[in-house]
Amino acid sequence: MRLNIAVLPGDGIGPEVISEAAKVIRAVAEKFDHEVAITQYPIGGNAVDDFGSPLPEATITGCLASGAVLLGAVGGPQYDKNPRGLKPEDGLLGLRKALQAFANLRPVIVYDELIAASPLKPELVKGCDLLIVRELLGGLYFSTPRGFEEENGQTKRAFNTLSYTVAEIERIAHVAFKAAEKRRGKVASVDKANVLESSQLWRQVVERVAKDYPKVALEHILVDNCAMQLVREPRRFDVVLAENLFGDILSDEAAVISGSIGMLPSASLGGPVGLYEPIHGSAPDIAGTGKANPLGTIASAALMLRYAFNLEEEARAIENAIREALAQGLRTADLAGGSATISTAEMGDAVCQATLGKRPTAGEA
Ligand code: IPM
Ligand code: MG
Known about the structure:
By secondary structure, the protein is an alpha/beta fold. It is built from 13 helices and 12 strands. It is 41% helix and 19% strand.
């Protein structure tokens, strides 16, 4: 099979983690006899610097012409004061929109080897396995009106809108229930229905969609309570369904369960081409130091093989290789907790070796 992949390294540690993921993709392609065509495109702050836009037209065209998009991270403090439209994050949001990627899947898995890396008690996190289904194209991120209100040349007010249509809620709810059917059959739908109209509608619509999935148990949970339960009793969760901003916040919190935000991958689906990216940011403070953890990006590459190319065995090969590298005691700085660490590239190499090392013999593949 030919794997036609658009790769968007982005800013900060993005390029470093992306090059490790690219190595691993090439290794798994070699092992399973696939052809890889990787084309790089600019996005984020560096694209503003070089092309005057965080999302150049050629990037959108290239992504839409590919079989899947793998992205590193965008952003950096030097761009903080950029006006709207010229922020690195606008590039990412614009890309999500261009790809119609409304369903963001963020699996949170606790590897036994990393239980000690979580600040939570081992008995709380052991065996935890949940999936955050985050709505990605609505809510505060995209609704209008939004903006600043000026008076006599001074900003007097700033405002955003949290709006959801029935159709937007329905389509993301279906994704969550379908995922739950293949998992442990539970959906926790997150809202703030005690205060917000958009959440009241969210609750009603999710309730209605739930009727199509009689085998899935639905609970509604207020976002503040969900934030507490995620660290109090994370194993009670199977699928967590949330609107855009709630999902953004809860997924960073859930990363703590896994030991490090550097571990978590994501897949953004729903449109013609899927977008795969780690959930962490560009971490400008450690960019270029070799301290970044590439495993979230490598795990995103595994999700890409699974969802974009339907290559389940290849995806598992990468996930097993990640597990094996961890089992060998290999740790990047974020996971170390006092023990010796290896660099971003060494971790990438270790995963490649583990991927290749388990080459199946003829007939087995
Ligand atoms: C994420 C990030 C992005 C988001 C930022 C970089 C715009 O935090 O993917 O979680 O808020 O969606
Ligand atoms: Mg985030």
